[in-house]
Design brief:
Layout (H helix, E strand, L loop, with lengths): L4 H14 L1 H15 L1 H8 L14 H11 L3 E7 L8 E7 L2 E7 L6 E5 L3 H11 L6 H23 L16 H15 L1 H19 L4 H5 L13 H5 L1 H4 L2 H11 L4 E6 L8 E6 L11 E4 L6 E5 L6 H14 L5 H34 L9 H23 L4 H37 L1
Antiparallel strand pairs: 1-2, 1-5, 2-3, 3-4, 5-6, 6-7, 7-8
Length: 435
């Protein structure tokens, strides 16, 4: 059966052009998310840690946090794989969360913030700041669209495997950008497949298709005898023996290094510890230990080495999607992979807009179509929800809000200059020379 290459081309173009702005935001936010921890290190001096030979006691760290935030509660304790970043302890003070930066070597509280680059770009990429699951599913749908875009491109592009080095110069910008679009697209195939497949897996997990979510995610045990002393529970996050809890967990799983600790949020919940072992690729949560918050009795253990296939697939999705499985080197590689895919969206927009501008000036086309309003609607919705999150959830300071606003403003001006002003000027010049 003969392939209808024109149909595949129209599908490919429709996805890349009609949903262009939203597509770019999803791809570019994920690209920035891969190096967001390094952005924190670069722009937040308080988060930097100088590597030393030994670590401070977790209990001593908690004492210092308590001195600084006496009315606070520890919600989560996160440690990074890289040695040059401070631990981040999530402390809730009267309903407001602070990310407290604790030096793991000296135990000193070096600073705190209600928002970090990592949190901002992760939230933007996860759900575009749009609540009620609408944002999550909007992002996840693009995993399918990315895969369809790749498939249709390979179907209509003849002998693509022989054109891995085909970049055309000296024949005008349109020819150059078309060849660059194809060339970058070909070299980005491994990342396109990886990002789309892991994104589809996230969709299956969130929708619990074929019971994937329930099978893959270990259910936390509840205390048979919940804590009855409410006054003690109110201060329990400062009373836990974190050194003992980590030691018990590391004894249960060979070669475990505890990275994350979650104190109980309810009176019937245990202490939840996760970390890294010698099992490759998996995230911290592949290794789980649940302990009683007062007796430190082991209630449940999950070892990454012994998990079922579905659970293992779920635990490698994040490291593969964001590229942190191999440290800074793989994150940089993944960053350029994501940047390439983001660039495909931009070059596709440029090629399409230039053709449409030329057609309009020749009076062959009258409008761009209604899909520009769809892109515009989602763009405005994302901004409104983003500012709501910045003010209500993060309690972001005015300088942070102005910085974020400046970033969006810069992108908007750059987009207008490249995709409107420069294209119109180039077309006017071409038409003048052709007369």
């Amino acid at each position: 059966m003969k392939l209808n290459r024109k149909l595949f081309f129209r599908i490919h173009s429709w996805i890349g052009i009609k949903l262009s702005i939203l597509f770019f935001i999803v791809c570019f936010s994920g690209t920035l998310a891969t190096l967001s921890s390094e952005m924190d290190w670069l722009f937040i001096p308080e988060i930097r840690a100088k590597v030393q030979d030994s670590y401070a006691s977790r209990n001593e760290i908690v004492k210092k946090i308590k001195e600084k935030y006496p009315k606070g509660k520890i919600e989560y304790w996160s440690s990074f794989e890289v040695p040059y970043l401070c631990n981040q302890v999530y402390v809730n003070v009267e309903g407001q969360r602070f990310y407290v930066f604790v030096n793991p070597y000296t135990g000193e509280v070096q600073g705190a913030s209600s928002l970090t680059f990592r949190r901002f770009f992760r939230d933007l990429h996860y759900f575009l700041f749009i609540p009620l699951q609408i944002g999550h599913f909007t992002v996840l749908i693009f995993a399918f669209l990315l895969f369809i875009s790749l498939t249709t491109a390979l179907l209509f592009y003849k002998k693509w495997h022989k054109k891995l080095f085909d970049l055309k110069f000296g024949k005008g910008w349109v020819v150059f950008f078309r060849s660059a679009h194809r060339l970058v697209g070909l070299w980005s195939i491994p990342f396109t497949i990886l990002f789309s497949i892991t994104g589809i897996w996230y969709f299956l997990e969130r929708t619990n298709t074929a019971n994937v979510s329930k099978i893959a995610n270990t259910r936390a045990p509840k205390l048979e005898l919940p804590l009855s002393d409410s006054a003690f529970f109110e201060r329990i996050t400062y009373e836990i023996d974190y050194d003992r809890a980590a030691l018990v967990a590391e004894t249960e799983i060979p070669y475990l290094r505890v990275k994350d600790i979650s104190p109980p949020a309810k009176m019937d919940q245990p202490i939840y510890l996760t970390g890294l072992s010698k099992e490759p690729l998996v995230r911290h949560r592949a290794n789980r230990v649940y302990l009683h918050p007062t007796t430190y009795e082991v209630l449940k253990v999950q070892k990454a080495k012994e998990t079922a296939t579905v659970t293992w697939l779920n635990d490698i999705a994040d490291p593969l999607h964001f590229g942190y499985w191999g440290g800074l080197i793989t994150k940089i590689i993944w960053f350029f992979g994501g940047l390439s895919i983001s660039g495909l969206v931009l070059t596709g927009i440029w090629i399409s807009l230039k053709r449409k501008v030329k057609d309009r000036q020749r009076r062959k086309a009258q409008r761009l179509g209604a899909w520009k309003y769809v892109n515009g609607f989602f763009g405005v919705l994302i901004l409104i929800c983003m500012y709501a999150f910045l003010v209500l959830r993060y309690a972001a300071s005015l300088p942070i809000i102005l910085l974020i606003t400046g970033g969006w403003g810069f992108l908007a001006v750059l987009a207008w200059y490249v995709f409107d002003y420069r294209i119109k000027k180039a077309v006017e010049k071409e038409l003048a020379l052709s007369k």
